[in-house]
């Protein structure tokens, strides 16, 4: 039972870390894109 | 009236299928007929076994070994990064996560699959290369195998995760239940029952993903460094087959040896891709699951 829980947490951590990294990457790309736009006419 | 309509639909479907086949074979013929002419000026041995690819020199050389090794090294390192990670995520999604989490993860991977490769290439070019140069001070260029493999892993991950997760999900539920009923814990059930049963599906997923990595052009063109050399470390720049075609095709003399050599590289890529597809089909056609 403990092993199952450990494996679940381990794999979940890996999966969520990757998902978080991807979301960060997309946010970063969007932010950089928006940053390069001059908003004042 | 109904009979006529059905006959028309049948004819239309047949014509569409026939046209598609003709177009595919037409492309194949075009590729091979253009590529094969390179052997009028270059020997088979030089083309496949020489690592000197200098098509614009006064005395041009057309050896693709360095390009081939470039493709192999980038693909190999990408697989080292993405297969274990993809497998772990797929097992988590299929066996451990709740339905809601699975949906969330699927959404993230759909987002990842939607990132254009040129955007990822630009990210690798600007930021990953800078990070590599800062982290590993002895490295002389940030555009290398390591950089290309990291960026390609992001690109390939949705394929690996989705296909492996599909393979794991299609193992019948009663197999899991039988294992649990015999007293095995969940981890043992997953790794001793589910994964072995989905083995051919997982191998199929790996081969399809590998095919995708080998054929990827934009990322390797932008971040692999573009140096025609046989690498001695993962921080060496390389020029994979696809980037040679993409980078040089626009600048060659039509009908020249260089032009034909690039088409022959296309044939080599096609052969690799076809081999992988055949292996994948064989695996898929093999004995997969035995629903009890």
From TrEMBL, chain B:
Its membrane topology: Multi-pass membrane protein
Record CDD domains: TM_PBP2
GO biological process, alphabetically ordered: phosphate ion transport
Function: Part of the binding-protein-dependent transport system for phosphate; probably responsible for the translocation of the substrate across the membrane.
Localization per Swiss-Prot or TrEMBL: Cell membrane
Pfam families to which the protein is assigned, alphabetical: BPD_transp_1
Keyword set, alphabetical order: Cell membrane, Membrane, Phosphate transport, Transmembrane, Transmembrane helix, Transport
GO MF term list: phosphate transmembrane transporter activity
Lineage: Bacteria, Thermotogati, Thermotogota, Thermotogae, Kosmotogales
Listed InterPro entries: MetI-like, MetI-like_sf, Phosphate_PstC, Phosphate_Transport_Permease
Transmembrane region(s): 12-32, 62-92, 104-125, 145-164, 213-234, 259-280
Any one GO cellular component localisation term in the record: plasma membrane
Entry-linked PROSITE patterns: ABC_TM1 (PS50928)
Organism: Kosmotoga olearia (strain ATCC BAA-1733 / DSM 21960 / TBF 19.5.1)
Keyword presence, Transferase: no
Protein name in UniProt: Phosphate transport system permease protein
Domain ABC transmembrane type-1, first and last residues per copy: 68-280
Tagged with keyword Transport: yes
Family of the protein in this entry: Belongs to the binding-protein-dependent transport system permease family. CysTW subfamily.
